[in-house]
Design brief:
single chain, alpha+beta, Arc Repressor Mutant, subunit A, Chorismate lyase, 2 domains, two-stranded antiparallel sheet, elongated
Length: 262
């Protein structure tokens, strides 16, 4: 049987999810809630703690507890890769019209704020193993952050690695100021004659690091999804390794598998 603070939390949770309490609405003071529910202030505080941990409310200086405005959800589907490949050789105007973030969120390009930074690094043991290349191989590390202009946090934290030698034939691929590249990574790789044959994505979950929690503005006790994406060319060589940190409170993973008919 639910104890007092769980019943209070449930009543408030229902009000939030039903829309009776809307994003940005302040909750009554603790003493008023205690009177409303016929319980003591400690039970109310425990109930509010539960709702904060669930990301439903947050404390605001001078306003007390308010209903938290949910972040825009991104639906990451495996169909995005064929969608991207189908556009990689298309006209520039078509490729520039939208990208994978728009595909996953339903937003328009004008709604987004994009940032990319590049640097050259040497492959450590883990990356060398992922690429099946010697340690110390020159790589281009690319960091991407894309957010909805009305929000302050990115949809994900993306770090992509390319073998520098494999893309050096097109100097434009080494220059971060050319981002966002119309058509994304597959269009970039196409300029140096690389066609992807398949993509492997491995997903695990864990608590965020302090830096990840801060950058993604995660509520307490949230988890992140950790995606290692390995892009493999039609010649079976690994050409791109990406590490993507996805906030568990606003990411949906959707996998569609088409089955051959008997």
């Amino acid at each position: 049987m639910a104890v007092a603070h769980e019943r209070i939390a449930d009543r408030l949770r229902r009000s939030i999810r039903a829309g009776r309490l809307k994003p940005g609405d302040p909750l009554p003071p603790e003493a008023q809630l205690a009177e409303q529910f016929g319980q003591g202030v400690p039970a109310v505080r425990d109930a509010l703690r539960i709702l904060r941990d669930e990301g439903l409310i947050e404390g605001r200086p001078g306003r007390g507890n308010v209903v938290r405005r949910p972040h825009t959800t991104a639906v990451r589907t495996n169909l995005r890769h064929q969608w991207e490949k189908g556009r990689a050789r298309g006209p520039l105007e078509e490729r520039a019209r939208n990208g994978t973030t728009e595909y996953e969120t339903g937003l328009q390009g004008r709604d987004l704020v994009f940032h990319a930074s590049y640097r050259e690094i040497e492959a450590d043991e883990g990356l060398a193993r992922a690429f099946a290349l010697p340690e110390g191989t020159a790589l281009l590390e690319r960091r991407y952050r894309t957010r909805y202009a009305a929000e302050s946090t990115p949809f994900s934290l993306v770090t992509s690695y390319l073998v520098r030698e494999a893309i050096a034939g097109n100097p434009e691929l080494l220059d971060e100021t050319n981002e966002p590249w119309p058509g994304g990574s597959q269009a970039q790789l196409h300029t140096v004659g690389i066609e992807l044959g398949h993509i492997e994505e491995r997903v695990t979950a864990r608590p965020p690091t302090p830096d990840e929690a801060a950058e993604l503005a995660l509520p307490p006790r949230s988890s992140v999804l950790v995606l290692r994406k390995t892009s493999i060319g039609i010649d079976d060589r690994v050409v791109d390794v990406s590490d993507v940190i996805l906030p568990g409170d606003r990411t949906e993973m959707l996998f569609t598998t088409y089955l051959e008919r008997w």
